[in-house]
Input
Amino acid sequence: MLTFLAGGTGTPKLLAGARRLVDSDRLTVVVNTGDDIELGGLVVCPDLDTVLFHEGGVLDTDRWWGIADDTHETNRELHRLADVADLDGGPQYLAADKQTSGREIARWRRFSGVAEFMTIGDRDRAVHITRTSLLDSGFSLTEVTETLADCFDIDLTVLPMSDDPVATMIETADGEMHFEEYWVGHGGTPDVRGVEFRGSDTAEPTDSVRNALTDPVIIGPSNPVTSIGPICALDGVREALASTPVVAVSPFIEDRVFSGPAAELLAAVGHEPNTRGVADAYPFVDAFVLDTDDTTDLSRPTVRTDTEITDRDDSERVMRAALAALDRVDKPAKKGWAVDV
Output
């Protein structure tokens, strides 16, 4: 058995290679939900959906967001209505007192649907409507995710990190905002001054997540702060990771990041914006996979390969390196961890 910690891009890219090397029924993916929002009354789970759509074979891999070849008629009409009605000219963020009303799972991350700032496709929206309706019927996010995974005929296990609300909040020069508002709404342009995983002090990992963390863990080249940070902020997760073999693939080649705002966010939370900063952010990681061009000298076992992932062959190459790194970890998982490839 093998467990992955995932955000929205880096780790999902690694799953294609994992499926070539390990039987799917031995793979579990624990997914960040700190990016989740409620938009226009619908619960949107960006990282969960990326994993679901990727494993279901429908992901738009040009954007790494949404469903390929989707239509966007509802989104266009929302923007037309906002323009005609002169509703403040763009996306809206509800007042602070509205952020703690309504569905508990949407706490601190509720947005108005007026001129929605995310470009949500019509088939994608059907997923959000289904998820929200099931949540309102009393199902947990874990149960809803299992149902959606069945809808996309997914044979590995996909778990949200928690059924409780956690919101990744970014303190910027322009004020505090949810990560999705910072990254999607403002294109990551405001200067970052700090990061808070709001709600993580009371949120709990599910029993399924706790069980998955007794297997060896692989962290793909995801953002250490906003993709993996919310998972690690949950009660008991860091302790669980310290007790099981963990390998991480760096999202950097020295100080060059493959994609996203990892450099700015690492710096904002007090780490160097480079591979060494990733290692400092992951004290529980036993071994690393670094790029062959990365000369960073770490005090932990390191396996090097070309870590850029653009297709399934790349993914398999990096995954083989991750398994080789696991072989160098002298720490057995509680459930035993033979991974045959």
